[in-house]
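Deviation from plan, reported transparently: adenosine-5'-diphosphate complex.
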Amino acid sequence: MVMAVTSDLQLAQWARVRSRLLEEFGEAAYRSWLSFLTLREVKDGIIRMEVPNRFLRDWVTVHYADRLRALWCGENRSVSRVEISVGQTKVEPQAKSIDVPAVAAPAVINGPATRQFSGNAGPAAGIDGDGRLEGQLDERFTFENFVVGKPNELAHAAARRVADVAVSPNHQVPFNPLFLYGGVGLGKTHLMHAIAWHIRRYAPHRKVIYLSAETFMYQFIKALRYKDTMAFKDQFRSVDVLMIDDVQFISGKDATQEEFFHTFNALVDQNRQVVISADKSPSDLELEERMKSRLGWGLVADIHPTTYELRLGILQAKAEQRQQTVPQRVLEFLAHKITSNVRELEGALTRITAHAQLVNREITLESAQDVLHDLLRANDRRVTIEEIQKRVAEHFNIKLSEIHSARRARAVARPRQVAMYLSKQLTSRSLPEIGKKFGGRDHTTVIHAVKTIEALMANDRALAEDVELLRRMLES
Ligand code: ADP
Ligand code: MG
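Because the crystal trials were delayed, the predicted structure below was used instead.
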Protein backbone atom coordinates (compact mmCIF):
# COMPACT_ATOMS: atom_id res chain seq x y z
CA MET A 1 0.00 0.00 0.00
CA VAL A 2 1.30 3.41 -0.89
CA MET A 3 1.43 5.57 2.15
CA ALA A 4 0.54 9.16 1.81
CA VAL A 5 3.38 11.54 2.48
CA THR A 6 1.47 14.24 4.18
CA SER A 7 1.83 16.20 7.37
CA ASP A 8 -0.86 17.14 9.82
CA LEU A 9 -0.77 20.65 8.52
CA GLN A 10 -1.37 19.47 5.01
CA LEU A 11 -4.19 17.27 6.15
CA ALA A 12 -5.75 20.20 7.93
CA GLN A 13 -5.37 22.28 4.77
CA TRP A 14 -6.92 19.50 2.77
CA ALA A 15 -9.79 19.31 5.24
CA ARG A 16 -10.47 22.98 4.67
CA VAL A 17 -10.20 22.66 0.91
CA ARG A 18 -12.68 19.81 1.08
CA SER A 19 -15.15 21.73 3.14
CA ARG A 20 -14.95 24.62 0.69
CA LEU A 21 -15.56 22.24 -2.20
CA LEU A 22 -18.56 20.89 -0.41
CA GLU A 23 -19.90 24.36 0.19
CA GLU A 24 -19.29 25.58 -3.31
CA PHE A 25 -20.46 22.64 -5.32
CA GLY A 26 -23.11 21.26 -3.02
CA GLU A 27 -23.57 17.93 -1.44
CA ALA A 28 -24.69 15.98 -4.49
CA ALA A 29 -21.72 16.95 -6.63
CA TYR A 30 -19.38 16.51 -3.73
CA ARG A 31 -20.60 13.04 -2.99
CA SER A 32 -20.60 11.94 -6.61
CA TRP A 33 -17.17 13.21 -7.57
CA LEU A 34 -15.11 15.01 -5.03
CA SER A 35 -15.41 12.68 -2.08
CA PHE A 36 -13.22 10.18 -3.95
CA LEU A 37 -10.20 12.42 -3.90
CA THR A 38 -7.35 11.37 -1.67
CA LEU A 39 -4.37 13.51 -0.85
CA ARG A 40 -1.18 11.60 -1.66
CA GLU A 41 1.68 13.99 -1.52
CA VAL A 42 2.60 17.63 -1.33
CA LYS A 43 6.01 18.25 -2.75
CA ASP A 44 7.82 21.04 -4.58
CA GLY A 45 4.63 22.99 -4.95
CA ILE A 46 2.79 20.09 -6.51
CA ILE A 47 -0.25 18.61 -4.88
CA ARG A 48 -0.69 14.99 -5.85
CA MET A 49 -4.15 13.57 -5.46
CA GLU A 50 -5.67 10.27 -6.39
CA VAL A 51 -9.03 8.92 -7.41
CA PRO A 52 -10.01 5.25 -7.85
CA ASN A 53 -10.56 5.17 -11.62
CA ARG A 54 -9.90 6.88 -14.92
CA PHE A 55 -13.38 8.13 -15.44
CA LEU A 56 -13.30 9.96 -12.11
CA ARG A 57 -9.87 11.32 -12.89
CA ASP A 58 -11.06 12.79 -16.19
CA TRP A 59 -14.26 14.14 -14.78
CA VAL A 60 -12.68 15.74 -11.76
CA THR A 61 -9.85 17.16 -13.84
CA VAL A 62 -12.18 18.74 -16.34
CA HIS A 63 -14.74 20.04 -13.89
CA TYR A 64 -12.96 20.83 -10.71
CA ALA A 65 -9.22 21.07 -11.22
CA ASP A 66 -9.17 24.85 -11.52
CA ARG A 67 -11.10 25.43 -8.39
CA LEU A 68 -9.14 22.77 -6.57
CA ARG A 69 -5.92 24.48 -7.45
CA ALA A 70 -7.24 27.90 -6.46
CA LEU A 71 -8.37 26.61 -3.10
CA TRP A 72 -5.06 24.92 -2.50
CA CYS A 73 -3.25 28.11 -3.37
CA GLY A 74 -5.41 29.87 -0.85
CA GLU A 75 -4.14 27.44 1.76
CA ASN A 76 -0.58 27.24 0.66
CA ARG A 77 0.97 29.90 -1.51
CA SER A 78 3.74 27.71 -2.81
CA VAL A 79 1.33 25.43 -4.63
CA SER A 80 1.76 25.69 -8.36
CA ARG A 81 -0.04 22.63 -9.63
CA VAL A 82 -2.53 19.97 -8.68
CA GLU A 83 -2.12 16.56 -10.27
CA ILE A 84 -4.86 14.00 -10.22
CA SER A 85 -4.00 10.41 -10.99
CA VAL A 86 -5.55 7.00 -10.68
CA GLY A 87 -4.54 5.18 -7.53
CA GLN A 88 -4.79 1.49 -6.76
CA THR A 89 -5.84 1.68 -3.16
CA LYS A 90 -9.45 1.85 -2.27
CA VAL A 91 -9.18 2.36 1.44
CA GLU A 92 -7.43 5.58 2.17
CA PRO A 93 -4.50 5.23 4.51
CA GLN A 94 -5.24 8.64 5.95
CA ALA A 95 -8.98 8.19 6.04
CA LYS A 96 -8.89 9.19 9.64
CA SER A 97 -7.97 12.66 8.50
CA ILE A 98 -11.62 13.18 7.76
CA ASP A 99 -12.15 13.63 11.45
CA VAL A 100 -9.28 16.00 11.87
CA PRO A 101 -10.82 19.31 12.76
CA ALA A 102 -10.16 21.92 10.15
CA VAL A 103 -7.97 24.15 12.17
CA ALA A 104 -4.91 26.20 11.75
CA ALA A 105 -2.96 28.81 13.52
CA PRO A 106 -4.36 32.29 13.28
CA ALA A 107 -3.46 34.18 10.18
CA VAL A 108 -1.07 36.73 11.52
CA ILE A 109 -1.10 39.08 8.69
CA ASN A 110 1.26 41.76 9.68
CA GLY A 111 3.60 42.66 12.38
CA PRO A 112 6.19 40.77 14.31
CA ALA A 113 6.17 37.04 14.04
CA THR A 114 4.09 35.55 16.74
CA ARG A 115 4.68 32.32 18.43
CA GLN A 116 2.62 29.60 16.93
CA PHE A 117 0.83 26.82 18.66
CA SER A 118 0.75 23.39 17.33
CA GLY A 119 -0.57 20.38 19.06
CA ASN A 120 2.07 18.08 17.79
CA ALA A 121 5.65 18.74 18.49
CA GLY A 122 7.84 18.98 15.44
CA PRO A 123 7.84 21.46 12.64
CA ALA A 124 5.57 19.58 10.29
CA ALA A 125 2.54 20.31 12.37
CA GLY A 126 3.28 24.00 12.62
CA ILE A 127 3.14 26.61 9.98
CA ASP A 128 5.53 26.55 7.02
CA GLY A 129 9.08 27.07 8.14
CA ASP A 130 9.18 30.67 7.00
CA GLY A 131 6.06 31.51 8.92
CA ARG A 132 3.86 32.08 5.90
CA LEU A 133 0.59 32.47 7.64
CA GLU A 134 -1.50 34.51 5.32
CA GLY A 135 -2.58 31.38 3.54
CA GLN A 136 -5.93 31.59 5.19
CA LEU A 137 -6.85 34.89 3.69
CA ASP A 138 -8.68 34.46 0.46
CA GLU A 139 -7.18 36.82 -2.05
CA ARG A 140 -10.48 37.34 -3.78
CA PHE A 141 -12.05 38.71 -0.63
CA THR A 142 -11.18 42.38 -1.02
CA PHE A 143 -13.27 45.52 -0.81
CA GLU A 144 -12.81 45.97 -4.55
CA ASN A 145 -14.51 42.66 -5.13
CA PHE A 146 -17.36 43.27 -2.75
CA VAL A 147 -20.58 44.38 -4.38
CA VAL A 148 -22.56 46.75 -2.21
CA GLY A 149 -26.34 46.79 -2.15
CA LYS A 150 -29.10 47.61 0.26
CA PRO A 151 -28.86 44.36 2.24
CA ASN A 152 -25.18 44.78 3.08
CA GLU A 153 -24.55 48.49 2.92
CA LEU A 154 -24.34 49.05 6.65
CA ALA A 155 -22.00 46.13 7.22
CA HIS A 156 -19.87 47.23 4.30
CA ALA A 157 -19.67 50.84 5.42
CA ALA A 158 -18.76 49.77 8.95
CA ALA A 159 -16.06 47.39 7.74
CA ARG A 160 -14.69 50.07 5.46
CA ARG A 161 -14.55 52.51 8.31
CA VAL A 162 -12.74 50.08 10.57
CA ALA A 163 -10.22 49.43 7.80
CA ASP A 164 -9.71 53.12 7.02
CA VAL A 165 -9.27 54.09 10.62
CA ALA A 166 -6.85 51.25 11.23
CA VAL A 167 -4.51 52.58 8.56
CA SER A 168 -4.78 56.23 9.50
CA PRO A 169 -1.94 57.73 11.55
CA ASN A 170 -4.07 58.39 14.55
CA HIS A 171 -6.29 55.42 14.84
CA GLN A 172 -9.11 56.17 17.18
CA VAL A 173 -11.17 53.01 17.15
CA PRO A 174 -14.60 54.04 15.83
CA PHE A 175 -16.74 51.39 17.48
CA ASN A 176 -15.72 48.43 19.47
CA PRO A 177 -16.44 45.73 18.69
CA LEU A 178 -17.78 45.75 15.19
CA PHE A 179 -20.21 42.88 15.25
CA LEU A 180 -21.21 41.55 11.82
CA TYR A 181 -23.98 39.07 11.62
CA GLY A 182 -26.03 37.39 8.94
CA GLY A 183 -26.89 34.06 7.38
CA VAL A 184 -24.51 31.70 5.66
CA GLY A 185 -22.77 32.88 2.53
CA LEU A 186 -23.77 36.52 2.73
CA GLY A 187 -20.27 37.98 2.93
CA LYS A 188 -19.19 38.13 6.58
CA THR A 189 -15.90 36.39 6.01
CA HIS A 190 -15.38 38.35 2.82
CA LEU A 191 -15.66 41.64 4.70
CA MET A 192 -13.29 40.53 7.44
CA HIS A 193 -10.68 39.44 4.96
CA ALA A 194 -11.17 42.70 3.12
CA ILE A 195 -10.34 44.62 6.28
CA ALA A 196 -7.21 42.52 6.69
CA TRP A 197 -6.09 43.04 3.09
CA HIS A 198 -6.68 46.75 3.33
CA ILE A 199 -4.56 47.11 6.43
CA ARG A 200 -1.95 44.88 4.99
CA ARG A 201 -1.68 47.06 1.96
CA TYR A 202 -1.78 50.49 3.55
CA ALA A 203 -0.28 49.93 6.99
CA PRO A 204 1.79 46.78 6.86
CA HIS A 205 3.33 47.49 10.26
CA ARG A 206 -0.01 47.08 12.02
CA LYS A 207 -0.59 43.70 13.46
CA VAL A 208 -3.82 42.05 12.44
CA ILE A 209 -4.99 38.63 13.49
CA TYR A 210 -7.86 36.95 11.75
CA LEU A 211 -9.03 33.59 12.98
CA SER A 212 -12.12 31.50 13.16
CA ALA A 213 -13.69 30.93 16.54
CA GLU A 214 -13.02 27.25 16.05
CA THR A 215 -9.33 27.89 15.67
CA PHE A 216 -9.38 30.07 18.71
CA MET A 217 -10.94 27.29 20.76
CA TYR A 218 -8.71 24.64 19.36
CA GLN A 219 -5.59 26.59 20.14
CA PHE A 220 -6.74 27.50 23.56
CA ILE A 221 -7.47 23.91 24.42
CA LYS A 222 -4.08 22.90 23.09
CA ALA A 223 -2.46 25.60 25.16
CA LEU A 224 -4.24 24.35 28.24
CA ARG A 225 -3.11 20.84 27.57
CA TYR A 226 0.48 21.90 27.03
CA LYS A 227 0.31 24.31 29.95
CA ASP A 228 1.21 27.11 27.67
CA THR A 229 -1.61 29.55 28.17
CA MET A 230 0.74 32.44 28.80
CA ALA A 231 2.12 32.14 25.32
CA PHE A 232 -1.38 31.74 23.98
CA LYS A 233 -2.36 35.03 25.57
CA ASP A 234 0.83 36.71 24.49
CA GLN A 235 0.04 36.39 20.85
CA PHE A 236 -2.96 38.66 21.26
CA ARG A 237 -1.22 41.19 23.45
CA SER A 238 0.27 43.40 20.79
CA VAL A 239 -2.42 43.00 18.18
CA ASP A 240 -3.93 46.14 16.64
CA VAL A 241 -6.93 44.49 15.09
CA LEU A 242 -8.32 41.13 16.16
CA MET A 243 -10.99 39.49 14.04
CA ILE A 244 -12.80 36.39 15.12
CA ASP A 245 -15.10 34.77 12.62
CA ASP A 246 -18.15 32.67 13.40
CA VAL A 247 -18.30 33.11 17.14
CA GLN A 248 -21.50 31.09 17.33
CA PHE A 249 -19.12 28.15 17.57
CA ILE A 250 -17.90 29.37 20.92
CA SER A 251 -21.32 28.91 22.44
CA GLY A 252 -21.56 26.82 25.49
CA LYS A 253 -17.94 25.82 25.86
CA ASP A 254 -17.18 27.21 29.27
CA ALA A 255 -13.44 27.55 29.56
CA THR A 256 -13.03 28.85 26.05
CA GLN A 257 -15.93 31.19 26.48
CA GLU A 258 -14.22 32.58 29.54
CA GLU A 259 -10.92 32.94 27.76
CA PHE A 260 -12.53 34.53 24.78
CA PHE A 261 -14.23 36.99 27.09
CA HIS A 262 -10.96 37.90 28.79
CA THR A 263 -9.09 38.33 25.57
CA PHE A 264 -11.91 40.40 24.19
CA ASN A 265 -12.18 42.62 27.24
CA ALA A 266 -8.47 43.17 27.50
CA LEU A 267 -8.25 44.32 23.89
CA VAL A 268 -11.29 46.54 24.02
CA ASP A 269 -10.00 48.13 27.21
CA GLN A 270 -6.75 48.90 25.46
CA ASN A 271 -8.63 50.48 22.61
CA ARG A 272 -7.64 47.82 20.11
CA GLN A 273 -10.13 47.14 17.38
CA VAL A 274 -12.06 43.91 17.64
CA VAL A 275 -14.25 42.61 14.82
CA ILE A 276 -16.58 39.69 15.42
CA SER A 277 -18.86 37.78 13.12
CA ALA A 278 -21.65 35.35 13.82
CA ASP A 279 -24.71 33.91 12.20
CA LYS A 280 -26.92 35.41 14.91
CA SER A 281 -27.24 38.71 16.68
CA PRO A 282 -25.37 39.04 20.01
CA SER A 283 -28.53 38.55 22.01
CA ASP A 284 -29.38 35.33 20.19
CA LEU A 285 -26.03 33.71 20.79
CA GLU A 286 -25.77 30.96 23.35
CA LEU A 287 -23.38 32.81 25.55
CA GLU A 288 -23.41 34.14 29.06
CA GLU A 289 -25.49 37.25 29.49
CA ARG A 290 -22.59 39.55 30.33
CA MET A 291 -20.77 38.35 27.24
CA LYS A 292 -23.76 38.93 25.00
CA SER A 293 -24.31 42.41 26.24
CA ARG A 294 -20.64 43.25 25.91
CA LEU A 295 -20.61 42.08 22.32
CA GLY A 296 -23.40 44.46 21.50
CA TRP A 297 -21.65 47.53 22.88
CA GLY A 298 -20.06 48.63 19.68
CA LEU A 299 -21.75 48.61 16.33
CA VAL A 300 -23.95 45.68 15.44
CA ALA A 301 -24.37 45.47 11.67
CA ASP A 302 -26.52 42.80 10.14
CA ILE A 303 -26.33 41.58 6.60
CA HIS A 304 -29.76 40.89 5.18
CA PRO A 305 -30.63 38.23 2.65
CA THR A 306 -29.77 39.30 -0.87
CA THR A 307 -32.19 41.05 -3.16
CA TYR A 308 -32.57 40.37 -6.85
CA GLU A 309 -30.69 43.56 -7.70
CA LEU A 310 -27.75 42.66 -5.49
CA ARG A 311 -27.60 39.14 -6.86
CA LEU A 312 -27.57 40.44 -10.39
CA GLY A 313 -24.88 42.98 -9.51
CA ILE A 314 -22.72 40.28 -7.96
CA LEU A 315 -23.11 38.01 -10.96
CA GLN A 316 -22.19 40.80 -13.35
CA ALA A 317 -19.12 41.64 -11.32
CA LYS A 318 -18.01 38.02 -11.07
CA ALA A 319 -18.52 37.34 -14.76
CA GLU A 320 -16.48 40.41 -15.55
CA GLN A 321 -13.71 39.42 -13.16
CA ARG A 322 -13.46 36.08 -14.83
CA GLN A 323 -13.50 37.75 -18.24
CA GLN A 324 -16.35 35.55 -19.17
CA THR A 325 -19.14 36.62 -21.45
CA VAL A 326 -22.38 35.39 -20.06
CA PRO A 327 -25.58 36.59 -21.72
CA GLN A 328 -27.52 39.07 -19.64
CA ARG A 329 -30.57 36.81 -19.83
CA VAL A 330 -28.66 34.01 -18.18
CA LEU A 331 -27.43 36.28 -15.41
CA GLU A 332 -30.95 37.48 -14.81
CA PHE A 333 -32.18 33.95 -14.74
CA LEU A 334 -29.61 32.96 -12.14
CA ALA A 335 -30.28 36.04 -10.01
CA HIS A 336 -33.89 35.15 -10.14
CA LYS A 337 -33.62 31.48 -9.36
CA ILE A 338 -30.72 31.11 -7.00
CA THR A 339 -31.75 33.01 -3.97
CA SER A 340 -30.25 31.05 -1.11
CA ASN A 341 -26.88 32.74 -0.77
CA VAL A 342 -24.02 34.28 -2.67
CA ARG A 343 -21.84 31.23 -2.39
CA GLU A 344 -24.34 29.16 -4.32
CA LEU A 345 -24.77 31.90 -6.82
CA GLU A 346 -21.02 31.94 -7.46
CA GLY A 347 -20.95 28.16 -7.62
CA ALA A 348 -23.66 28.24 -10.28
CA LEU A 349 -21.75 30.74 -12.37
CA THR A 350 -18.59 28.69 -12.06
CA ARG A 351 -20.39 25.61 -13.17
CA ILE A 352 -21.98 27.06 -16.26
CA THR A 353 -18.81 28.78 -17.40
CA ALA A 354 -16.76 25.65 -16.84
CA HIS A 355 -19.27 23.63 -18.75
CA ALA A 356 -19.29 26.08 -21.65
CA GLN A 357 -15.51 25.90 -21.87
CA LEU A 358 -15.57 22.16 -21.71
CA VAL A 359 -18.03 21.64 -24.51
CA ASN A 360 -16.72 24.73 -26.27
CA ARG A 361 -20.12 26.22 -26.81
CA GLU A 362 -21.71 29.49 -25.92
CA ILE A 363 -23.70 29.78 -22.77
CA THR A 364 -27.43 29.83 -23.33
CA LEU A 365 -30.40 29.85 -21.05
CA GLU A 366 -31.09 26.24 -21.94
CA SER A 367 -27.56 25.04 -21.25
CA ALA A 368 -27.57 26.91 -17.94
CA GLN A 369 -30.82 25.29 -16.89
CA ASP A 370 -29.45 21.95 -17.86
CA VAL A 371 -26.15 22.24 -16.05
CA LEU A 372 -27.75 23.62 -12.92
CA HIS A 373 -30.60 21.22 -12.75
CA ASP A 374 -29.94 19.99 -9.21
CA LEU A 375 -29.14 23.44 -7.83
CA LEU A 376 -32.28 24.92 -9.26
CA ARG A 377 -34.32 22.20 -7.69
CA ALA A 378 -32.78 22.84 -4.30
CA ASN A 379 -33.53 26.53 -4.56
CA ASP A 380 -37.00 25.77 -5.68
CA ARG A 381 -37.94 24.28 -2.42
CA ARG A 382 -38.87 27.74 -1.32
CA VAL A 383 -41.77 28.15 -3.67
CA THR A 384 -43.92 25.15 -4.44
CA ILE A 385 -46.65 24.82 -6.99
CA GLU A 386 -49.11 24.20 -4.18
CA GLU A 387 -48.17 27.50 -2.59
CA ILE A 388 -48.58 29.29 -5.87
CA GLN A 389 -52.01 27.77 -6.37
CA LYS A 390 -53.09 28.73 -2.89
CA ARG A 391 -51.94 32.32 -3.21
CA VAL A 392 -53.43 32.75 -6.64
CA ALA A 393 -56.78 31.34 -5.54
CA GLU A 394 -56.82 33.67 -2.56
CA HIS A 395 -55.87 36.63 -4.64
CA PHE A 396 -58.58 36.08 -7.23
CA ASN A 397 -61.03 34.98 -4.66
CA ILE A 398 -61.78 31.54 -6.06
CA LYS A 399 -61.70 28.15 -4.40
CA LEU A 400 -58.50 26.14 -4.50
CA SER A 401 -60.45 23.22 -5.93
CA GLU A 402 -61.39 25.38 -8.89
CA ILE A 403 -57.74 25.70 -9.83
CA HIS A 404 -57.68 21.93 -10.30
CA SER A 405 -61.11 21.66 -11.84
CA ALA A 406 -62.02 21.47 -15.50
CA ARG A 407 -64.26 24.55 -15.43
CA ARG A 408 -63.58 26.87 -18.29
CA ALA A 409 -65.39 29.98 -17.16
CA ARG A 410 -63.09 32.95 -17.52
CA ALA A 411 -63.33 33.77 -13.80
CA VAL A 412 -61.53 30.55 -12.96
CA ALA A 413 -59.65 29.85 -16.16
CA ARG A 414 -57.67 33.08 -16.02
CA PRO A 415 -56.45 32.64 -12.44
CA ARG A 416 -55.56 29.05 -13.30
CA GLN A 417 -53.46 30.28 -16.20
CA VAL A 418 -51.77 32.81 -13.96
CA ALA A 419 -50.92 30.04 -11.51
CA MET A 420 -49.48 27.94 -14.32
CA TYR A 421 -47.50 30.87 -15.59
CA LEU A 422 -46.08 31.56 -12.14
CA SER A 423 -45.28 27.88 -11.64
CA LYS A 424 -43.23 27.98 -14.80
CA GLN A 425 -41.51 31.21 -13.77
CA LEU A 426 -40.84 30.52 -10.14
CA THR A 427 -40.10 26.81 -9.99
CA SER A 428 -37.96 24.61 -12.17
CA ARG A 429 -40.65 21.99 -12.63
CA SER A 430 -41.07 20.78 -16.17
CA LEU A 431 -44.19 21.53 -18.19
CA PRO A 432 -45.62 18.01 -17.81
CA GLU A 433 -44.99 18.15 -14.06
CA ILE A 434 -46.83 21.44 -13.84
CA GLY A 435 -49.69 20.10 -15.94
CA LYS A 436 -50.01 17.14 -13.63
CA LYS A 437 -50.42 19.39 -10.61
CA PHE A 438 -53.23 21.25 -12.29
CA GLY A 439 -55.73 18.45 -12.37
CA GLY A 440 -53.67 16.25 -14.67
CA ARG A 441 -53.57 18.58 -17.65
CA ASP A 442 -51.41 18.15 -20.69
CA HIS A 443 -48.15 20.07 -21.06
CA THR A 444 -49.51 21.85 -24.13
CA THR A 445 -52.17 23.38 -21.91
CA VAL A 446 -49.40 24.79 -19.73
CA ILE A 447 -47.58 26.22 -22.75
CA HIS A 448 -50.79 27.80 -23.89
CA ALA A 449 -51.37 29.31 -20.46
CA VAL A 450 -47.86 30.75 -20.30
CA LYS A 451 -48.21 32.29 -23.77
CA THR A 452 -51.65 33.67 -23.03
CA ILE A 453 -50.55 35.35 -19.83
CA GLU A 454 -47.44 36.76 -21.45
CA ALA A 455 -49.51 38.24 -24.25
CA LEU A 456 -52.13 39.62 -21.91
CA MET A 457 -49.60 41.18 -19.61
CA ALA A 458 -48.21 43.22 -22.46
CA ASN A 459 -51.56 45.01 -22.88
CA ASP A 460 -53.49 44.58 -19.69
CA ARG A 461 -51.92 46.74 -17.00
CA ALA A 462 -54.16 45.46 -14.24
CA LEU A 463 -53.33 41.84 -14.95
CA ALA A 464 -49.62 42.61 -15.23
CA GLU A 465 -49.78 44.23 -11.81
CA ASP A 466 -51.65 41.31 -10.32
CA VAL A 467 -49.03 38.92 -11.60
CA GLU A 468 -46.17 41.07 -10.41
CA LEU A 469 -47.71 41.41 -6.97
CA LEU A 470 -48.21 37.67 -6.69
CA ARG A 471 -44.68 37.03 -7.79
CA ARG A 472 -43.32 39.35 -5.13
CA MET A 473 -45.44 37.79 -2.41
CA LEU A 474 -44.37 34.33 -3.39
CA GLU A 475 -40.72 35.22 -3.56
CA SER A 476 -40.50 37.02 -0.27
P1 ADP B 1 -20.21 34.12 5.14
O1 ADP B 1 -18.89 34.24 5.82
O2 ADP B 1 -21.16 35.20 5.51
O3 ADP B 1 -20.82 32.75 5.25
P2 ADP B 1 -18.63 34.56 2.77
O4 ADP B 1 -18.00 35.83 3.15
O5 ADP B 1 -17.77 33.35 2.86
O6 ADP B 1 -19.98 34.32 3.58
O7 ADP B 1 -19.22 34.71 1.30
C1 ADP B 1 -19.56 33.60 0.50
C2 ADP B 1 -19.13 33.86 -0.93
O8 ADP B 1 -19.94 34.86 -1.50
C3 ADP B 1 -17.72 34.33 -1.05
O9 ADP B 1 -17.12 33.77 -2.18
C4 ADP B 1 -17.86 35.83 -1.21
O10 ADP B 1 -16.80 36.38 -1.95
C5 ADP B 1 -19.16 35.95 -1.93
N1 ADP B 1 -19.88 37.18 -1.60
C6 ADP B 1 -20.75 37.37 -0.58
N2 ADP B 1 -21.25 38.63 -0.59
C7 ADP B 1 -20.67 39.24 -1.65
C8 ADP B 1 -20.78 40.56 -2.20
N3 ADP B 1 -21.60 41.49 -1.68
N4 ADP B 1 -20.03 40.84 -3.29
C9 ADP B 1 -19.24 39.91 -3.84
N5 ADP B 1 -19.08 38.67 -3.38
C10 ADP B 1 -19.79 38.32 -2.29
MG1 MG C 1 -17.86 32.85 6.90
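Confidence is low (pLDDT under 50) at residues 90-105, 111-135. We consider this an acceptable substitute for the interim report.
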